[in-house]
Structure formats: structure tokens, C-alpha cells
Amino acid sequence: MNRLKPIIINELRPIFEKLGIDENHWHPLIQTSRESSQGDLTLPCFPLAKIVGKNPLEIANSIATEFPSVASIQQCNAVNGYVNFRASNVWMFEQLPSCTDSMLEKKQILIEHTSANPNGPFHVGRARNAILGDTLVRLHRLAGNEVTAEYYVDDMGKQVAVLAWALEHLTKEEVDSILADKEADSGQWEGKTDHQSVRWYQAAQSLRQSSERKDSIEEEITTLVHASEHGNSEVLRQFENAYQPVLDGMLETLQRLGIQFDRFTKESTFVINGDVATLIDTLKKSELHGEAENGALFLDLEPRGLTGKTEFFYCRGDGSSLYATRDIAYHLWKWAQSENLVNVLGEDHKLQAKQVGLTLQELNSKAPEIVFYSFIKLPEGKMSTRKGNVVFMDDLLEEAHGHAAQVVQELRPEYSHEEISTIAEAVGTSAVRFNIIKVSPEKGFTFKWEDALAFEAGSAPFVMYAHTRACSIKEKVESSKKPSTFEIEDFTNLPEGCEQLLRALMLFSDQLDTSVMENRPHIFANYLLQLATSYHAFYRDCHVLEGNEVNTTYYAISEFAKNALRKGLVGLGITPLESM
RNA sequence: GGGCGUGUAGCACAGCUGGAUAAUGCAUCGGCCUCCUAAGCCGAAGAUCGCGGGUUCGAAUCCUGCCACGCCCGCCA
Predict the structure, then answer these.
(1) Fewest 10 Å CB contacts: which of A137, A222, A285, A535?
(2) Nucleotide closest in space to A578 (CA vs C1')
(3) In the CATH hierarchy, which top-level class contains the domain A4-87?
(4) pLDDT tens, residue by residue, A74-130
(5) How far apart are CA A433 and CA A450, in angstroms?
(6) Is the CB atom of residue A455 positioned under 7 angstroms from any atom of strand B?
(7) Which nucleotides of B are covered by protein (CB under 7 A)?
(8) A393-571: CATH, from 2.40.50.140, 1.10.730.10, 3.50.50.60, 3.40.50.300
(9) Measured between alpha carbons, how far is A82 from A76 in angstroms, rounded to an integer?
(10) Given this model, what pLDDT does residue A385 score?
(11) CATH: 3.90.190.20, 3.40.50.620, 3.10.450.50, 3.40.1010.20. Which one for A109-285+322-377?
(12) Which of A3-7, A516-520, A564-568 has the weakest average pLDDT?
């Protein structure tokens, strides 16, 4: 309804000039109505009462009385000190072709997300990052922004080192015997590289903890880590051979969720090309610079507002860099690639991100925008690969597919196996995505199968179904032979469901823009539920096909809604289906 | 101990730059397929918005104290 604002403001201007109230006072008061039954936009007059020394009810009344009659506004009335404006049906109908267009200025943006260590299969704990990140990518694209989706590959450091060490030193038999006391692998994912490699990683983790060899193993791993951090190309190649198959497996899983990346940037890049060394030299010259007894270097960020432990270490005593140091080098590089940066990070990275951001500012660069999210827990508690307390994304998606197939089978027994499988895949993956994306990221999230696989109202299939109904109408209209048509000429008295849908469509760009501006996809997800609900109401009240007659007005509205639904679904990474 | 976040019906969740009767879904109870796909629609019931103070014409929303839960406070990544 933001498109209605300029119209209203135009008409209000002379009225407020007469009242002697400055634009700065009344302009920002105009807001979307809380109660849509009252109107579309509302102007509360309470704050104005003080300025002119009048009763707010009086002010509201006089504004409403003086408000001229305009084609775009159906109604302007005063209630309890509020002035309510209601858009006219004709105006809304005219707006339909452009209702999905974002009103924001287009920008260039680099979104880094997921960036999970390639040391094992994707689990649902990591899924929130990937789904949140990918949805942001999609919504920014829907809003017309030029987006690069980027994955930062952690190709050095301890986790990869452990994996590389294990692959070099352990045979399959050794791995099997070390993991023998663990729950047996179902074997379902035997052919998938990430599931294979993770067994070596787990075996190594087990040895590091309890075997007699643990000290020597630790030493070997530490040697590898340090070699990688000094840019040792042979070790880095060994690492790559270890992690690449795992990463490929993870990406395969993500692909199934519709998640893809434009670019992969390796952490080691900035060690090898000297950026990290240059950065360390620069930081040494900072006025915040400090040095520990063993030669390790830090920045004291206290003067920049950090509290608690304010030393931020960027260089070890042996001269090697730390993860955060490389991250800063990476960010300096990213700023050269794009005007806007967004990172998606777990809440455990808050302090780290603060340190990186402050240091970037210290270097006359900027801190990126960051979307933080809380972790996904399981009902049994925190997810932990070591304890085997994980739900693998592959298992989840398989389960979702199976469950969806069962539902389709029951609901549409006439469909072929292939049709059922296609629908089940779309419904299953979409439901998983939607289940995670519809809640605000800072909210703690407990993963429950029953929620992920709930296909009723409030879920992805609910929205998909609205789209399907619209597709079905289109097909019926197109296949009916030379239907007679009629259109509605009087828009003043449309059925409730029709008005509701028009109103919902008018909110598309508002909601998309807010969602994109604030980087909060759940806003748009919830809006899409509202849009679907409204379409169902329209479907209930307005029949496009009545006998052999096509109501072209309704048909036009249905088509615009179908388009909006499709765009919205794609924006959330949900697969729009023609039939389901 | 310090920092950040969360606390809204039985469950889950929206609303948080202060505004009207706190929105939605699940679960519960009742109704709708001779009518474009019932994965839908209609209705009922269900909320001391964690607790206490404060600011205000007006507080779920802002301030403050307390309580509960989560995350962080590595020369790890």
C-alpha cells in the first residue's frame, strides 16, 4: 500500500497547510493500518493534538471532512482520533500489473552464507544458515538487486587437517574397528562421498581423544595445520584432496534444496597471495597494537567500544595467522568485489564478527551487514556430530520425500508413480525450507519431524496449493471452447474474497522491500501465507468459470495472483507446481 | 562474573522505529464436496503478552530491576 501514500499525502498537504502543521510532523505518521477492517492506511492524530492544541478527535474529524473525493480512495473517515484511508477497488485493479515490482533502488550485493567446514555431511544444524542465506539471495534477486552468492571454503585449519590426516593414516578396516562401538551406519548413503569421508574424520576424532597415540597424532596434526597456515602448497593440495569430495557431497545435498553458489573462495587464497602478511604488517602499525610475551600480536579494541576481553589476537607467536585474520583479509577483498556485503552467521560468531568489524573500520574499511541466527536444536538437545546426535540433511530430505509421496498417494490415487515422485520431491524440500524460513532467525529453533513434515495451512504446500488452484483455473479457461465472457464494470461491490485478494496483492512490494531491506526473510514468508489465504478466499467467493462463461475480470485477477504467488514461491526457494 | 539474544493461548509462532478489539497455524469442538483440485473453506473455544516498577493521552512494543532459558567471553575454526 506504499504506492497509495504519495496520493494521500498530496491530498492532505493543503489541509495541513490550513491547520498550520509542518510536513515533518504529519508525514511520518501515515502508516499501514493495524486493523485492515478499518482501512489500508491510517493517520493517528494524537501527536498532532499537542502541536495545534486541539482535541485529536476534532482534528481527525476535520481532516476526514475536508478530504476531497479521489478515484483512488474509496473511503476516508475519522474514528476515535484516527483518520482511515481505504483504497478503491478500481485503483487496486489498475495497480495489479506492477504490484510485484520492488520500489527500492537497485543495488549490488555479495551474500556469503553456509561456508560450512567440509568435514562431513550437511546436517540440519547447518541448514538454517544455508536456507536463510539462499532465501536472502533469492529475495534480493526478486527485488532486482545484482547478487553474488558466495561460499567461503575453509580449506585450512584443524578440522580439514584432521580429515586429511585420517585419510592418509587410517585404512578402512581401522576406521571400521574404531567406530565399531558406534551405531552402525545404515549404509543408505554409502555411495555419497561426504558420508564416506566423515567416518575417517570421526575415527580420527576418537583417536585424538582416547588412544595411546593421541599425543603423537596431535603433533602431526598441528604440524599440518601450521604448514597450511604458512601456505605450504603440498599440504594445501593434500587438504584439497581430502575435503573436495566432502564439499561435493555437501553441495549435492544443497542442490536438492535448490541452493547454489556463484563463487567459491578458498581461505588459503589470502595466505598464498600475501594479503594476510600485508594485513599483519598494517595492523602492527595500528595505535591499538600490542604484543604478548611470546610474540603473539593483538589489537586492543577497548578504545573502540569492546568490553570484556578486549585483546583481539591476529597473529600467533610463530608468525602464523589466525582464522579471524584471514577473515579480515577476505573481507577487504570482498569489499573490492561488491558495494554491499551481507554475511549469514550463527550467533556463536557474534563476538568474532564484532572484532572483525571493528578491525575493518580501523583499516578505513567497513563492517559487513550480518544476519545472525540461533542454532537449531533437536528435542534431545544440542546437535553434536561426535555424539552421533545429528539429523543429516540427506536423511531429512529423504524422509520428507517419502512422507510427501504417501500424502500425494492418498490424496491423488489417480496420479502415476512418476507424477507422485515429482510432486513429493517439490513438496518435501519446500516444506523443509519453509518450516525453517518462516520463523525469525534470532528465535531458538527446535527441529521436530512433525513440524517439518506438516503439510497443512501455514506450510509450504498451503501456498503451493493456492498457486496450483490458479494454474488449474487457467488450464480450464484455455481448454474451454470459445467460452462466452463478461467483465465486471462496477467495482464498488466486489465479493469479500475478491477485495481481500486485491488488498493482499497490494502488499507484495511493501513486504518484499521490508524483508530485503532488513534482511529478514520470514517477513516475506509470512506475507506469502497471507497472500495464499487471500487467494483461497477469492477462490471461495469468486468463480472465474461459471458454466461456460468466463468472468474475465476475475480471471485477470486470478492470473495476477498466480504470477505473484509464483514469484513469491521462487523467492523463497519453493518449487511452484502446476498440479499437486 | 561480563556481553548478546530469547520469554506472547496446551504447543508453535507473528506483532517490537509506542497507537484502536494482540494476528496466524497445530491440537480441541462443530459445520461445508450434485459448484474452477477439500493439501481448501466457515464457525466455536482458548492470552494476568515471564514477574515487579517507571515514562506516556496511550506500553506486548520504550526505560529500569529481577527470574528462566540459549549463545559467547581460546595465541581454535
Answers:
(1) A285
(2) B37
(3) alpha beta
(4) 999 998 889 999 999 999 999 999 999 999 999 999 999 999 999 889 988 899 999
(5) 14
(6) yes
(7) 1-7, 12-15, 19-21, 24-27, 35-42, 57-58, 69-77
(8) 1.10.730.10
(9) 10
(10) 60
(11) 3.40.50.620
(12) A3-7
Write out the three cell numbers for A234: 603440498
Instruction: Spell out the domain ranges in chain A.
Output: 4-87, 109-285+322-377, 393-571
Sequence length of chain A is: 580
Distances (CA, A) of A331 to A22, A145, A311, A336, A357: 44, 20, 20, 9, 9
Tell me which residues from 289 to 318 on chain A have a beta carbon below 7 angstroms from nucleic acid strand B. Answer: 292-294, 296, 307-309, 311, 313, 316-317
Is there contact between A448 and strand B, defined as CB under 7 Å from any strand atom?
no
- Going by C-alpha positions, the residue among A433, A468, A439 that lies closest to residue A453 is A433
Q: Which amino acid is at A566?
A: R
pLDDT tens, residue by residue, A465-497: 999 999 999 999 998 877 788 888 889 889 999
ipTM of the complex: 0.96
How far is the C-alpha of A210 from the C-alpha of A220, rounded, in Å?
16
- Rounded Cα–Cα distance for residues A106 and A140 (Å): 9
